[in-house]
Amino acid sequence: MMNSFDRRTFITLSTGGVAAGLGAVGSAGVSTAETEVSSRDLPLATDGDAIWDLHCHLSGVPGQTVEERAAQLLEYADRMQIQRLIFFMGWPWSQNPTPDDFRRQNDQVIRVLERWPERLFGFAYLNASHPDASLAEIERCIHEGPMVGIKLWVASKCSEEEIDPLIRRCGELNALIYQHTFFKVTGNLAGESTPLDLAQLAARHPEVPLICGHTGGDWTLGIRAIREFPNVSVGIGGSDPTAGFVEMAVRELGPERVVYGSDIGGRSFATQLAKVYGAEITPEERKLILGGNLRRMLKPILQKKGVTL
Predict the structure, then answer these.
(1) Helix axes 245-253, 219-226, angle to 10 degrees
(2) Quick check: helix, strand or coil at residue 213?
(3) What's the pLDDT score for residue 4?
(4) Burial 219-241 (b: 16+ CB within 10 A, else e)
(5) Reading across the β-sheet that carries 149-152, which strands appear in turn?
(6) What phi and psi values does residue 82 have, to the nearest 5 degrees?
(7) What is the spatial distance between Cα 259 and Cα 249, in angstroms, rounded to a whole number?
(8) C-alpha closest to that of 58 among 129, 127, 107
(9) pLDDT in the model for residue 9
(10) Which end of the chain is more exposed for a tag (fewer CB within 10 A), N or C?
(11) Among 75, 78, 74, which Cα is nearest to 112's?
């Protein structure tokens, strides 16, 4: 059964609910006063979806402290009925972080995890160019701390074998691995991975679950690049809600390998949820994408940490 509303309807209705958020994160032309609506008017109370967001940032959000920024994002999340949020990276951002840089950013994230343990999870931001320091950070933040995964951005390509000790340790801990990927028409950064780089990593570690961030930007190429590797799922956050994106991912990968995330801070919850709510997929597939898959992938490490869902 298809959804009763399309992407345009969803965004039109839900924009009011995130109007404050859109204005606050820098989107122009939206007046909070003009678009304020009750959450009762939003179209998200559909079949009791349990929404978990894979991809959240503290940058690009108003607030002087991490607590103020997280509180603001939770207010927006409540309007969109998002239950759980995963944060990675603090601020200021660094494309090639030193160990001091990523430890400071991880400390920022840990502060909000400790403030809202019932709502927030966190991934540790690492740099594989510093393998020893990154391994130590895995021990500090995940094995001994509250985090449940790692985030790798653009410091070094994930196809390089220097990353392997980090991947093996995450596999031992059941920690999820989120790798940013992109096919840029203007050319990638020197250390920026494509889904083809992630495919090489997946082939070396077939037992370790990996998440292909942004589905490679050009999702038609990204889906094809990782299709033959069942340990790779795609994160659909961080791009425009284009018709056919989610449908192709479900068709080519199966709904169990498609994970909702927003990239909030740079994107809005509404536009990213619209990808799923406007997609021509079944309600069962929608529930997996919006939260079921992420809960399944996190279950082993959450059980180890004694987290009851």
Answers:
(1) 10
(2) strand
(3) 47
(4) beebbbbbbebebbbbbbbbbeb
(5) 51-56, 82-87, 120-126, 149-152, 176-180, 210-213, 232-235, 258-259
(6) -90, 125
(7) 10
(8) 107
(9) 57
(10) N
(11) 74
Which H or E element spans position 122? strand 120-126
Q: Which DSSP string do the residues of 147-212 spell out, in sequence order? A: --EEEE-SSS-TTSGGGHHHHHHHHHHT-EEEEE----TT---TT---HHHHHHHHHH-TTS-EEE
Nearest of 116, 168, 174 to residue 143 by alpha carbon: 174
Task: Tell me the whole-structure pTM to 2 decimals.
Answer: 0.87
Q: Can you tell me the distance from the alpha carbon of 269 to that of 289, in angstroms, rounded to the nearest whole number?
A: 15
Q: Crossing angle, helix 164-173 and helix 131-138, to 10 degrees?
A: 10
Cα radius of gyration rounded to whole Å, the chain: 18
Mean pLDDT of the chain: 89
Query: Does the N-terminal peptide bond of residue 209 adopt cis geometry, omega within 30 degrees of 0?
Result: no
- CA distance linking residue 246 with residue 243, whole number of Å: 8
Alpha-helical segments (H) within the chain: 7-15, 19-24, 32-35, 66-79, 99-115, 131-138, 164-173, 195-204, 219-226, 245-253, 269-277, 283-287, 293-304
Here the tokens at position 275 are: 């990808």
SS3 91: coil
The ranges of the chain with pLDDT < 70 are 1-46
